Each structure stands twice: as C-alpha cells, then as structure tokens.
Known about the structure:
The chain is an alpha/beta fold. It is built from 6 helices and 10 strands. An 8-stranded mixed beta sheet has the order 5-2-3-4-6-9-8-7, sandwiched between helices. The longest helix is centred in the first third of the chain and has 38 residues, at 2-39. The chain is globular and about 45 Å long.
Amino acid sequence: MVLINSAKKFKQSSSKLTEYRIRLVVDYIVHCYHLMISDGRQYNYADRGSVQHEDFLRNGLVNDYLAKKTNKEFYKNSISDNPNVDITFHSEEANTYVKSGTLKDDYIDISIHENRLSDIWGEETEDQIKFAVECKRIKVPNDYTQYIGDIQKFADRDFTTFRLPVEGQIAFIEKASITYLKASEEINKRLESSLSLTTNSFLSNSKISSGFTGCYSSKHTRNYGNGPVFTVSHMFFDYSKIVIN
Length: 245
C-alpha cells in the first residue's frame, strides 16, 4: 500500500510540475506569435509550392521563430526559471502507436523537447520526453471538426513510448470574424455532441501570457489503459492578417 501511495504521489507531483513547465513553453510560443505580429510577417500561399497549407504555416512558425537561437535565448533568460534549460523544436517527428495489434506511425506537427521536462519524468521512464503539439487551420465550420479530430487522436492512440499527460494544439485562425471566444464555443459544441470523446472539462480561458486571450485549456479521458485523464493546452492565433491567399 505504501508503494502504491508513493507511486500515486509521484505521478501527481510530476503532473503538476509538467503543467507548470508546459505553461512556460506555451508562454514562449505566444511570445513568438507576438514577434511575428510586430515584424509584420506574412505568409503567401502562392509561395508554398507543393507544401500543404497547414504545414506551410507550421513551418513558418517553427523555422522563423520558435527555433531561432535569439528567441530561444529569450526563453532561457526571460521566461524559463532556469537559464540552463535546453529546448528544441522538430516538425513532423514520427511517433509509433498500436491499433488493432498493428504498429502505425503518427507524425507530430511540432515535437518540443525541453530537458527540464525530461528531468521531471526521469524516474518514470527512459523514453525521450516530448510535448506534442498538433496544428490546424480554422476558416470554415468543417475546420472545427478537423480540430476535434486531433483531440480524438490524443484519446485513441495507444503510443508505444511515454506520453505526457498534457497535449498541445495550435489553431491558425484565418478569418477575422472568428474571435478566440467564438472558436472555443464552436469547439465546445462539438465536444458536447461527441459520442467517442469523454470530455471532463470543456475549453475555458487560461491566463498564461499577459494580455493574450487566445489560450484555453480542456481535459479529456484516454480511451485505452485505465482511462487516464489528460489536459489539452489550446493556443488560438489570429492569422487573418498574416496569411495571404
């Protein structure tokens, strides 16, 4: 019984520390979005070649902002509580899961590695720790369904390596009339009617980055194992003046 309680306390403590560090990472992502706005950066779909629209925007965010050395130094010295932290960003990183006894590949839109996150779970696993962030464009009503599809994947896919109890989602909102509140309400409507997703806590606003209202949080239950609850950190970004169609 003592061992069980110790394990439970360890996971509770690790989950709280994980959510704290994820908040720091999300704050950094929002910081990079604000840099993009102040730079007047625009992404013209005419320049994307054969790259998918969503990937074109994702690549711009990662390559032009998140992964830049100067910006990462800002994270270390001005956002993180430890200047010695190391953080890296990888696009389309493969992750394996099992479906009906068959191994399949899942490609994470943005895989974020932060060594302080790894330290938290070092006693639990020797697997590489990654914060998985999926990206979706939101422009028309059907896009909300696609967005919910990523939460469904988080709930359904039994990955062969360790998965954090926090997942991430970014929405590139391409229509000026879609406010952050509107997007959250539309997503919640679809979560309410979903028969395959158990939502423990619907999207509610998270005060993560000062002066930014596009961060939301929700909680859901995995559809495998003992049905552990996981958190989704949602980041809504207004791309209506960033995207050129």
